[in-house]
Amino acid sequence: MLYNEKDVLNLIESDEWMIDILRAAKSLNLPDWWICAGFVRTKVWDALHGFKSRTPLPDIDVIYFDNNDISEGKEKYLEKRLLRLYPGAPWSVKNQARMHVINNLPPYANSTEAMSKFTETATAIGVKINQENKLQLAAPCGIQDLLNLKVKPTALFKETIEHVTIYENRIEQKNWQALWPNITILHVEGVSS
What we know:
5-stranded mixed β-sheet; globular; Beta Polymerase, domain 2; alpha/beta
């Protein structure tokens, strides 16, 4: 059973593949970097469901925060570097210093704030190997929803009917309950436009 952040870190630390992926990302020396979203969420949900084999990831979300070069070209260059370091992994690199523009929001202060603007609380989580070579977790929305197998929107995705629609459409499209039947999906009610 997983009860707290230490349990999640121990789970990740015991997974050689995840550590190799984290080491590859760390080797880029990106500012304020994390591997987030499904990379952590899937590992936790697989463990809580007692799965013996890993659920495949559609992508490995590497985020970082660098105001000095917010070009999409830099992200693609970093993806190619990661593919050379760890071929075959579905790398996706995004500079959170530019993502606020795509999401039509005010600028983010850092990667952790950007994570807080992800769609679901259970997805708003990241892990990295820090300067002391220790695993570190970032969970701006906490980890209880993740550990309790609850899918609910972050604060941003409860604000407007447009945000709620994005959340509801994403939940339908992801169809997570087909993979992890014990999760509970929370829907948003009573939002005005």
